[in-house]
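Researcher: I'd like a candidate sequence for this fold, 89 residues long. If you have to choose between options at a position, lean toward the conservative one.
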C-alpha cells in the first residue's frame, strides 16, 4: 500500500508530493508510532532518502544505482509493507 493511500484512509486527503520523507512525517504525526512506523522510518531513513532521490531523479535524469542499493531497497520495501499491514489491521 502506498503512503498516500494510507494517509487518505486516515484523513481523507494528503500532501501532493513525491517526497517520501514528507509523507512519512505526516503518517507518523497521525498514528503516533502505532505498529512501529516511526521506528521503521528512523531505522531506514538513509535508504528512504535514497529511494526518494531515485524516484525524483528518474523523472529528470538517468540515475545509476548499484545492485547492492537495489537489493537494500527491496528489503526495505518488504519491511514497510509489513508495517503498513500491521497498522491497518
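Model: Candidate sequence:
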Amino acid at each position: 500500500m502506498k503512503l498516500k493511500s494510507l494517509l487518505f484512509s486516515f484523513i481523507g486527503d494528503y500532501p501532493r508530493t513525491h517526497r517520501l520523507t514528507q509523507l512519512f512525517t505526516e503518517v507518523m504525526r497521525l498514528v503516533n508510532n502505532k505498529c512501529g512506523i516511526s521506528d521503521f522510518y528512523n531505522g531506514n531513513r538513509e535508504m528512504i532518502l535514497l529511494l526518494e532521490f531515485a524516484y525524483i531523479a528518474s523523472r529528470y535524469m538517468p540515475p545509476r544505482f548499484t545492485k547492492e542499493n537495489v537489493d537494500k531497497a527491496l528489503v526495505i520495501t518488504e519491511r514497510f509493507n509489513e508495517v503498513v499491514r500491521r497498522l491497518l489491521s
